[in-house]
């Protein structure tokens, strides 16, 4: 499972719902920064997404995205230790 999958969905959701708008950015000639209030909105959305659950096919139960990322980490460790070939989680 790619972290981009989670990040992209959060960002597009915030933009599509106008929770984050152009006004949430401070723009100058050589930079563009997200304002503090907007950063807090993004972090709140991220935290909510990490608490959401999905059905895990192999485990046969619901797991949070946070737990799913941890499970993927364990699978990578097993792969690096030549215990088991890594197979990425598929939604």
TrEMBL record:
One Pfam family, please name it.
Answer: Cas_Cas1
Keywords from the named record:
Antiviral defense, DNA-binding, Endonuclease, Hydrolase, Magnesium, Metal-binding, Nuclease
Q: What is its EC number?
A: 3.1.-.-
State what protein this is by name.
Answer: CRISPR-associated endonuclease Cas1
Superkingdom of origin: Bacteria
Q: What are the recorded GO MF terms, alphabetically?
A: endonuclease activity; hydrolase activity
Per the UniProt record, the source organism is Listeria swaminathanii
Metal-binding found in the keyword field: yes
Tagged with keyword DNA-binding:
yes
The top of its lineage is: Bacteria, Bacillati, Bacillota, Bacilli, Bacillales
Checking Gene3D superfamilies in the record gives:
CRISPR-associated endonuclease Cas1, C-terminal domain (1.20.120.920)
């Amino acid at each position: 499972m790619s972290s981009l999958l989670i990040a992209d969905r959060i960002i597009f959701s915030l933009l599509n719902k106008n929770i984050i708008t152009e006004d949430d950015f401070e723009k100058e000639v050589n930079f563009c920064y997200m304002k503090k209030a907007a950063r807090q909105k993004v972090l709140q959305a991220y935290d909510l997404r990490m608490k959401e659950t999905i059905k895990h096919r192999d485990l046969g139960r619901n797991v949070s995205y946070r737990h799913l990322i941890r499970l993927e980490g364990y699978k990578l460790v097993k792969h690096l230790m030549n215990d088991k070939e890594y197979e990425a989680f598929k939604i």
